[in-house]
Write a sequence for this structure.
């Protein structure tokens, strides 16, 4: 159904008209895709989802990223405190050798 | 739970059956083309993008899990290809500097076009694409899907890997930016 252009410079109308546009119906890229895939690409192996790949997928999860970030923060704080302790010990041994 | 109608074909394709993948392409080519047409109204770009989507899908087939419909997964790849297309094809600084001419037409329109016949809807899509091209690629992709494809924000967020809140904030900011552009080009904003 055609939308009457009430205001030719209205974004709403422009978008409504733009939505009516449709992709060329005769578009067929199958031959090109199949030619490309059969020429160069190695076939995917569904059974080759090794541990590295699983780990990669796992790292893509948001909760995993959050957990790793928290872990990194805790590790940083621990290192910081550990260094402070070492510093204190160094002072202690300097004062009481 | 409904069974994915593509399950059998995709399983065969995952095992390396190119003919099964051909069936998958045949089944979903029009859907992917319709979606990517919003990103690339020119036929040459559209063909490249559709091809890129299916080639990427083939290489990533092993990562598809049957928990989500195959078409949803495929659309996600297509949307990301669209975003990459925007990142590659930013509007030329010359076009941005020139802006619309006296009749309000953008300079991109005067460039040699592809072999598609002219029609008002396609012109409108080209004009909308030109106005959106002033935005950063992520905003442009977001508003393309939201305004031109009328895709729900939750689905857009899922495709781009954003949280829903993040998508809402991005959409709000993108609209604000677009508003400025529309006013500059003599359009009444939403």
């Amino acid at each position: 159904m055609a939308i009457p252009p009430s205001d030719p410079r209205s974004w709403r109308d422009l978008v409504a008209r733009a939505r009516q546009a449709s992709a060329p119906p005769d578009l067929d890229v199958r031959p090109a895709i199949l030619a490309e895939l059969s020429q160069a690409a190695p076939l995917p192996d569904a059974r080759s989802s090794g541990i590295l790949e699983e780990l990669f997928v796992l790292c893509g999860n948001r909760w995993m990223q959050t957990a790793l970030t928290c872990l990194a923060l805790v590790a940083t704080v621990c290192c910081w405190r550990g260094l402070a302790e070492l510093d204190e010990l160094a002072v202690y041994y300097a004062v009481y050798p | 739970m409904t069974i994915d109608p593509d399950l059998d074909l995709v399983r065969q394709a995952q095992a390396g059956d190119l003919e099964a993948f051909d069936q998958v392409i045949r089944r979903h080519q029009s859907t992917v083309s319709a979606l990517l047409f919003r990103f690339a109204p020119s036929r040459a770009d559209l063909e490249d993008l559709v091809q890129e989507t299916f080639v990427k899908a083939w290489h990533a087939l092993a990562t598809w899990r049957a928990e989500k419909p195959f078409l949803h997964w495929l659309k996600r790849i297509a949307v990301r290809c669209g975003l990459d297309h925007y990142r590659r094809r930013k509007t030329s600084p010359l076009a941005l500097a020139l802006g619309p001419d006296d009749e309000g037409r953008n300079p991109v329109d005067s460039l040699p076009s592809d072999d598609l016949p002219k029609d008002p809807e396609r012109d409108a899509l080209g004009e909308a694409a030109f106005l959106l091209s002033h935005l950063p690629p992520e905003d442009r992709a977001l508003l393309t899907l939201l305004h031109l494809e009328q895709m729900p924000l939750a689905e857009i967020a899922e495709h781009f890997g954003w949280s829903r809140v993040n998508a809402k904030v991005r959409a709000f900011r993108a609209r604000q930016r677009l508003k400025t552009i529309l006013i500059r080009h003599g359009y009444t904003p939403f």
User: Anything to note?
Assistant: Chain B has a mean pLDDT of 86. Residues 164-184 of chain B form the longest helix (21 residues). DSSP finds nine helices and no strands in chain B. Chain B has two domains: 1-89, 99-190.
